[in-house]
Amino acid sequence: MFPGSRPQVTPAFPDVSAFLRDSGLVSIADSLATRVANSGLAAWLKTFLQTDPDLELARLKQERWDRYFLKVAQAVSTASKDPSTKVGAVIVRPDRTMASFGYNGFPRGIADTDERLNNREVKYDLVVHGEINAILTAREPLHGYTLYTWPFITCKRCSLHVIQAGIKRVVAPELPEHLKDRWAASVRDAGQLYDEAGVSWALIDTTEVE
């Protein structure tokens, strides 16, 4: 040490590990990490970061259009006089313009009296499903078009007509709980037929549409 110089003092830094442990920050961080992992946020973030931005934007844009046309199908369904289930269907061109729409009801010229509508056997013998009405009233080929249905995807019988018409995509809400007992098997069969025929189909959470 030179004369007149001050002695060098090494500052006493705190023990960082002990500080973090004693302050509880370590346990808080561990708890937060556990919650993030359990919530699935980490997996979602990893998937999001690995997604092509252009593809993700296209997907989000398509989802907005899907919800829009499901709302249109829902509005169309209100025209049905069926006291049990009101079905609406909208067929959309690739440029996102509507080609046709339909709802479940009796054929033209057939009286839809309360007596007939409230007799299930008679009603089922006379009713034309909404999807079929949309296909029959279209004034153009439907190859490559998209079908939107409300309140659930097509039944097994209608799916055959959808496939034969050349429609390549079907979008509908998920089957509501109160309709599962009656329609779950038919909806399952329709999905299997679509898969076999190469028709893509998607179910959207109803709460995101209503």
Can you walk me through this structure?
With 210 residues, the protein is of the alpha/beta class. The protein has two domains: 14-50; 59-204, Cytidine Deaminase, domain 2 (3-Layer(aba) Sandwich). It has nine helices and five strands, in the order ααααββαααβαβαβ. A five-stranded mixed beta sheet has the order 2-1-3-4-5, with helices on both faces. The radius of gyration is 29 Å and the shape is globular. Residues 64-201 form the CMP/dCMP-type deaminase domain. GO terms for molecular function: dCMP deaminase activity. Keywords: Hydrolase. InterPro entries: CMP_dCMP_dom, Cytidine_deaminase-like, dCMP_deaminase-rel.
CA-CA gap between termini? 82 Å
CATH topology of the largest domain: Cytidine Deaminase, domain 2
Order of helices and strands: HHHHEEHHHEHEHE
In total, how many domains does the architecture comprise? 2
Instruction: Tell me the name of the CATH homologous superfamily of the largest domain.
Output: Cytidine Deaminase, domain 2
Main attributes of the structure:
210 residues; alpha/beta; Cytidine Deaminase, domain 2; 2 domains; five-stranded mixed β-sheet; 9 helices; 50% helix; CMP_dCMP_dom
Topology:
Blueprint: H1 16-23, H2 25-39, H3 41-49, H4 53-77, E1 88-92, E2 98-103, H5 114-117, H6 120-126, H7 130-137, E3 146-150, H8 156-165, E4 169-173, H9 180-197, E5 200-204
Helix pairs in contact: 8-9
